[in-house]
Structures are given as C-alpha cells and as structure tokens.
Amino acid sequence: MKHSVQNFQTESKFIIKYEGNFQFQRDFYKKNFRDFSSKPYVSPLFSQTVFPVKFATQADVKVYEVKFETQADLNVFRVDFQNQATDCDGLWFYPDFVNQAQWKIFFTNFQTQADLKIFYVKFRNQAGWRNEEKKQLYCSKT
Description:
Elements: E1 3-8, E2 13-18, H1 22-32, E3 50-52, E4 61-65, E5 74-78, E6 91-92, E7 103-107, E8 116-120, E9 128-129, H2 132-138
Parallel strand pairs: 3-7, 4-7, 4-8, 5-6, 5-8
Antiparallel strand pairs: 1-2, 5-9
C-alpha cells in the first residue's frame, strides 16, 4: 500500500493519493482537520476568502457595508487573486464557489442586524481593522 500527501497552498487543503485502505483516509482526516462548521474561525494558514450567500441562515458572518470609513469595524480591500489575501488584515478574495471560501457572508439591509460593519477602501494599504474587539473575535488563533 502506497501513501502520498501533497499540499496545494493555493487551495489550502490536502489531497490524498492512495492505493487501497479506506481506513487510512478516514483516520488521516480525523487527525489533521478540525470541524469548521460550528463557528467562523480564521487561521493564519488560510487566506481571507469570503463568499456572499443569499440567505442569512447560510452565513457564518452577517455584514453591513457602511457609508463612511469611521463607522466601520473593518476596512476591506478586494484583491484579484487568492494568494494576495493574507491572514486577517482586511484583504478579501471572492472565490467562484462557496466551498472555496473560508467565510460565508450575508449582506444585511440594516446596521443593527450585522455582526461586522465593513467599508470598502480604494487602496490596499488602507485595509485593516478599526475595532480591536471585533478583531479579537474573528481573528483568534486556537
């Protein structure tokens, strides 16, 4: 039985090529991956990829886009490529498919419904957290 593990950094997931034993694959996933379904978790190993969903119940985070930068918890700059989106500093990449995203976000109509208030900035160096309490909540390292 041969086992090989390849790490593809662009997709931030492991792909297993094996011949034979299904038990090996199941045990490998149990040891190396945690369940991300309970809470939004941002790991420094992953880029900040977000996917807007149609319903609030599907979202990990409810977001409201404010009109002024001073009202925002997070200043966001949208990057063109996934490798440009880093840790937890407001550089967001929007993938084509929901399963490629780290966060599923829902844009609310009212500020009071949102967990996070964002403002889209024009330049990359303007991106970042304005509210340190929210940063601790969404960027905790566990």
